[in-house]
From TrEMBL:
Keywords: Electron transport, Heme, Iron, Metal-binding, Transport
Molecular functions per Gene Ontology: electron transfer activity; heme binding; metal ion binding
Organism annotation: Sulfurimonas autotrophica (strain ATCC BAA-671 / DSM 16294 / JCM 11897 / OK10)
Domain of life the protein comes from: Bacteria
Record's protein name: Cytochrome c class I
Cytoplasm recorded as keyword: no
Signal peptide: none
Electron transport as UniProt keyword: yes
Length: 107
């Protein structure tokens, strides 16, 4: 039984959680990014979700100063946030969940 709970804890740590990601968004991202097309200094996360893969979103959050050109930006205004790897997974999962259809999925 102890092994089961250990495996359950490890499994949960490996996967992202959308609800936790929403909390991370509210606490760290909502000042600059909207999810409802109401403006903000940064791009709306619906657009980011539509245009970019989840793994790329996570990379950008981890190191915006080195990734901004790969997102098509000419400059970077996003600060490096003190997020844990799990928080980055969670918020990336949340952003990815905003758009069920993706631009990059089109043929």
């Amino acid at each position: 039984m102890k092994l089961f709970f250990t495996l359950l804890i490890i499994t949960n740590a490996l996967y992202a959680n959308i609800e936790n990601g929403k909390d991370v968004y509210i606490q760290n991202c909502a000042n600059c990014h909207s999810v409802n097309m109401r403006g903000g200094m940064g791009p709306d996360f619906n657009i980011v979700s539509y245009s970019h893969k989840k793994a790329d979103i996570a990379k950008y959050i981890s190191s915006p100063s080195t990734m901004f050109r790969s997102f098509g930006y000419t400059s970077n205004a996003m600060p490096e946030l003190p997020l844990s790897p799990q928080e980055i997974k969670d918020v990336s999962e949340y952003i990815d969940s905003l758009q069920p259809f993706k631009k990059w999925m089109k043929k």
